[in-house]
Amino acid sequence: MAEGCQGRTMRNKCGARSLLALAILCIGLISAQSSLAQGTGSAKFHVDSQRLQGNLEKLSEFGRNPEGGVTRMGYSETDMAAREYVMGLMKNAGLEVRIDPAGNIFGRRAGTDKLPILLFGSHIDSVMHGGNYDGDVGSLGAIEVIRALNNGSVKTRHPLEVVIWTNEEGNHFGLGTLGSGVAAGLLGPEILGRKDEQGLTIADWLRRYGQDPAHLTDARIPKGALAGFVELHIEQGPNLDEGKIPIGVVQGIVGLKRWKCVVTGFANHAGTTPMNRRKDALAAASKDVLAVREVVRAETGRQVGTVGYMKVEPGAINVIPGHVEFPVEMRDLDAAKIGRMWEQVQERFKQTDKEENVATECTPLDDVDPARSDAAIQNAIRDAAKSLGFATMDLPSAAVQDSQQIAKIAPMGMIFVPSRDGISHSPKEFTSWQDVANGAEVLYRVILLLDERLNRN
Ligand SMILES: [Zn+2]
To answer: Exposure string (b/e) for 266-283, b if CB count within 10 Å is 16 or more?
Structure first.
């Protein structure tokens, strides 16, 4: 059976478009370059976990900080050096490498049929004082998948492309998911003049990356060009680690809404104003903060709500606060739920206004729609994990991702692997090498399952 599966295209190999179970079994039995037996069964790994670990360790040297993580912001000297290293890995894996005018790196492996591209990858830029796993695991995991396919002489119907998106974190220029945003047509020439702290513009940096900023919009990927986009990523939250679940199936990337609220009371003498005659904006705002928490906690689900700061005026020990500004942020996979919670919050604010004799005004700041993962890609991730004997958990991504942008132009899915203690954007970020390898092997199988299943007439 293993022999019958090996070294031919997926279509010929399994010849089982109608028999899902057989297809999965076939994939499980491809024996090329197995390096580890994993999971609860005896399924063989196609990715080489040691090679992947070695490459990730090498990548972690670019921008290493004293705490052992990295500071490798998009559009920086360290990012440029790391990109050279990663492009070398891509070329060694036989990929045909190109850079688009936004600085995104693509590496192509031809398919046997004339079909849209199956795209997978992540980003290699970090936040200030970031860790070694966010983005890196999915980027080098994707290259490892190509190496594994090459080792097994596996051909695919779809052309495969590995992508390294530019400046996902957005610490530089304050514009996250920049490369994928341009690719998805959400960002355009209006960003080129943005200046960094040294006075350099995005256009200047694109030139340093060898690109012509005048052609920025050529980086747009037309709808229909991609069969799908799959991103392997660390969870950056505690759910998988706590549940001891190796693979997360991302249901989508949560949307968020933010408002700026201002409570107006009356600043007056803290000694001479009787308690029943006060218009204390801070006392009112404090009730409002707790109201946000209570409303968000009252719903079932994984929604979150946060008040991140308060600006109190005049801010003196002997003056009743007359003016307080605070933001409200809510995130969930369901935009309607955010809307519902916000209505309740506003009711509570009105109640506080009456009780405290103040006036509260909120104005919208940000509104980012949730991005749902594609059902077929989620199924492929579940099936791939199952073929390895891995338990899975369905969960949303509460962090912003490139996948969120690409969801606007193509079916999208994400594979999560555990983050120890849910820590991320920190040098303490950690995912075990075993979990990294598990994720890469699932990605390998997902790509083959999608190649088998998608674009069938
Ligand atoms: Zn990331």
So the answer is: bbbeeeebeeeebbbbbb
Query: What six digits make up the tokens of 67?
Result: 């705490």
In the reported structure, the alpha carbon of residue 135 is separated from the centroid of ligand 1 by a whole-number distance in angstroms of: 4
134 CA → ligand 1 middle, Å: 5
Cα 285 to Cα 259, 270, 278, 316: the distances in Å are 14, 18, 14, 17
The CA 51 to ligand 1 mean position distance, Å, reads 21
* Cβ(340)–Cβ(298) below 8 Å: no
Distances (CA, A) of 74 to 58, 81, 123, 251, 346: 18, 11, 9, 27, 39
- Give 164 Cα–ligand 1 centroid separation in angstroms: 11
Note the maximum CA span of the chain: 90
- Which H/E stretch holds residue 294? helix 281-298
Hey, which residues does 371 pair with through a beta bridge?
A: 253
d(CA 148, CA 442): 12
Name the amino acid, one letter, at 394.
D
Measure 177 CA to ligand 1 centroid, in angstroms: 9
User: Ligand 1 centre and the CA of 60: distance in Å?
Assistant: 15
Q: How far is the CA of 262 from the centre of ligand 1 (A)?
A: 33
Instruction: Tell me what the mean pLDDT of segment 421-433 comes to.
Output: 95
**pLDDT tens digit sequence for 152-173:** 999 999 999 999 999 999 888 8
297 CA from centroid of ligand 1 (Å): 27
pTM of the model: 0.82
Which two three-digit tokens encode residue 272? 């001479």
